[in-house]
Design brief:
The complex is a heterodimer. In chain A, helix 5 packs across helix 6. Chain A is about 35% helix and about 25% strand. The longest helix of chain A has 17 residues. In chain A, helix 7 links the parallel strand 7 and strand 8. In chain A, the strands form two sheets. Chain A has a six-stranded mixed sheet with strand order 6-7-8-3-9-10, with helices on both faces. By secondary structure, chain A is an alpha/beta fold. Chain B is mainly α. Chain B has eleven helices and no strands. The chains are: A alpha/beta, B mainly alpha. At the A-B interface, helix 2 and helix 6 of A face helix 8 and helix 9 of B.
Chain lengths: ~250, ~270
Amino acid sequence: MLKVTRLSLCYPNGKQALSEVDLDVKPGELVIVLGGNGSGKTTLLRCIARTLAPTAGQVWVDGTELTRLAGEKLRRARMALAMISQHASLVRRRSVIANVASGALGHYADWWTAFGGLPASELTLAMDYLNEVGLVELAAQRAGTLSGGQAQRVAIARALAQRPRALLADEPVASLDPEAAEDIMCLLKRLAKADNLAVLCVLHQVELAYNHADRVVGIRDGRIAFDLPREDLSRDAVRGLYLSEAA
Amino acid sequence: MKHGIAQRPSRLATAAVAGGGSLAKATRFVLLLLGIAIVIQSTWVVHARPQDLITGVHGMVDIIRRAMPPDFSKFPDEIWPTLETIDIAIFGTLAGVIMAAPLAVLAAANVTPSRALYYLARGIIGFTRAVPDLVWALLFVTAVGLGPFPGALALSVHSIGMLGRLFAEVIEQMDMAPVEALALTGARRMQVFTHSVVPSVLPSLLGISLYRLDENIRTSLVLGFVGAGGIGFQLLTAMNLFQYQEVSLLLIIIFVVVITAERISAILRARLG
């Protein structure tokens, strides 16, 4: 579903941010990426989403190779790949349901949506997605009034409205309290299974990775340090990721 | 021993502080002298003569006496010019908003489609703002003749500059994270703009437009002095004909219009917030 082969990124100043990263996330699988600050976790997600252009390697999403695409073809291909980040990035002055339904805009090319309208059918679907994240009662509320955890759930609902095949999550619980963080991770895991999504999630919270991941990938200095099923993951392996940062 | 040294400031440090203190005093003294010099030169340049105020009191009292009571019998004649004044401002603001909004999008560094268009839009905004509205009114009176239309055109063109700059600043200061998030969903450029940029900045743009309408109502009063219609033109005519009782009526109307516009604008802006 989401496949990364020999992905590399070298900045113009010569710094090697990613080196030949290989990764495979299957449908229904939640893969968590761990690593120290500056290890390349977020850079990996940005290269997959093509907000950064990798210097080598390939990214396959649902059978489409993204790194060769640009313009309209890239826009179309991106619809299969949703992304949520640390901050929910909602339009604060719009209602929750409008924010969710806007995730589906890429599927429409009519004048109504081009001038700010939302397709009526998408509003019905948006209610279903809000129901999936447990916030259907807040549909009419302004997004700016939500708590951090609620906003992140709405961002996930917006990602679902996109009807993606893979979901990238860049530290989605970094600004949340432990309870809200646990809720969001449970939700991501449930959605991966229920919607058969390939979920690749960058985290700093090791315990959440132990509790929720199907597989854990460790990144150190832009390289894959380990890629293991959760049950095979040792504390020493994880400690090694952060020790190298301290050294 | 070390403790003692640490507690007592060194002579060098004391001297530096003392030196810094006298430098600050000297700077303050120079700034004071500079301030006084600026006040003196401005008084000299404008030929300020306070004694003229005292000798002119008789003339002012005479005008006020002749202006009382206001001639309310002329009120029906002033309704149309008052409406003209308000409508000059409404037309000018509306046309200004319609033209300023797309220019502001081009002139906002974070959403402009190209650098060339950015500089072009900034140039137009800068030029329309730099030329005062009274000068625009004189130009349009020459071009299309006397009446409210040149006044409305003048306010439209000047509002492009004033609104364009403020709109562009609002767009530049907006949070770009929702815009980028929507772009990543695969939404088209126009969809990202209408569903993310517009709802984020619209309340601020409406607030600025209402404030501009309030300003334009005050400006449209003055535009009548150069033949651009409205109540200003009535005021100029009444003064030239020494009809001071009509002048006082017009001043009352102007006061009511300005205060009402200001209050309505403030109430609407508060509701937008």
